Amino acid sequence: MGCCTGRCTLVFLCSLQLLAALERQIFDFLGFQWAPILGNFLQIIVVILGLFGTIQFRPRYIVVYTVWTALWVTWNVFIICFYLEVGGLSKETDLMTFNISMHRSWWREHGPGCIRRVVRPSAPGILDDYSYVSVTGCIIDFQYLEVIHSAIQILLSLIGFVYACYVISIFMEEEDSCRNK
Questions:
Q1: Per the count of CB atoms within 10 A, which of 38, 75, 114, 181 is most buried?
Q2: Start-to-end CA span in the chain (Å)
């Protein structure tokens, strides 16, 4: 097989997806976003499975990758709707942390150009752990950064889905031609 085959392209796309998922996982860990952390973890596992299936000529693994890719696109569409507050969703809820903490997106306070100012509570009896954080001067708001991350994931997943279907069909044709001989 030549180097510019669908199989090589799928390996390249899976590698890009793996890098994008790892980058997203890091920032979700920094923001204690437990729902996306779980989703990213599953994405990393399935993309590795898809890579293995592509390299080792295992079409069943690529089918698992293909099915997961459809679910991953759905999850990322949900994240876009969540951060853009579509359909009654609110980015101010604790949905992404499974309602166990008050953490939000790491990008909320650390986005490009953001100036973060911490104001300690002055009232007696209030724990020092809690403080008000004022964020100003952001070049791009955090919800748009989250939307961009999800849009990149969707784009990579859709292209990966198409190539995975192509590679599966190629593997099946090769398998059928070997059986007919």
A1: 75
A2: 20
Crossing angle of helices 34-55 and 59-83, rounded to 10°: 150
**What are the C-alpha distances in Å from 15 to residues 52, 93, 164, 179?**
11, 33, 13, 32
Distances (CA, A) of 88 to 71, 80, 94, 136, 141: 22, 13, 14, 26, 20
Q: Look up residue 120 and give its DSSP letter.
A: -
Is residue 14 within 8 A of residue 50, CB to CB? The reply is yes
Q: For residue 1, what pLDDT is reported?
A: 46
Q: Sign of the C-alpha dihedral, residues 3, 58, 42, 75?
A: positive
Contact 14, 8 (CB under 8 A): no
Q: What is the band of 125 on the pLDDT scale with cuts at 50, 70, 90? A: low
Return the structure tokens found at 69.
Answer: 């890719």
pLDDT digits (tens, 9 = 90+) for 84-95: 989 888 777 777
What distance in Å separates the CA atoms of residue 18 and residue 51, rounded to the nearest whole number? 10
Query: pTM to 2 decimals?
Result: 0.84
Residue type, position 158, single letter: L
DSSP string covering 129-158: T--EEEEE--SS-HHHHHHHHHHHHHHHHH
